[in-house]
């Protein structure tokens, strides 16, 4: 018997066993955590309504960043079970907004307002005040509720609540021109995160439409 050949056979067999053990071990490793599904409001597809021919142009408006509670400044998609505990906000595990809800609402509101007037952010408004000596009205909005609301295990809706304040700034200080709250619910097509997203987008668009109409009417 050739001792060299025997030693080589033993080494090859040992390598094969080690490779088999390695492959078996890899197969037993836990799967990668699933990536969260990201949602936003999607494109704004509604065409602006044509303004009446004799309508006066609407004044320039400054839109402040939308305020929200700390819980709504994150990207979690939140739901409430009113039949269990309506005071508890719960997050969906594998579904998130692409950015915080107050930012999504801000962009949607700005797009809606800009269909009929010039809309400035805070920096643009400050520049206008310095260069033109005019301070436009400021719209401040707070997002007070933004959740997938379950009335029962089989029935749910997107619930959005906004509070809007229209302010005029002057040398003597700010004055409140008008203030109003808006609360809108829209039924969810399914009792899960995708259904909640669709309902919240629909409720947000409806609340924003009401808010824009209200702003346009304040004189």
UniProtKB/TrEMBL annotation:
Residues 46-212 form the ABC-type transport auxiliary lipoprotein component domain. SUPFAM superfamilies: XCC0632-like. It comes from the Bacteria. InterPro entries: ABC_trans_aux (IPR005586). This is ABC-type transport auxiliary lipoprotein component domain-containing protein.
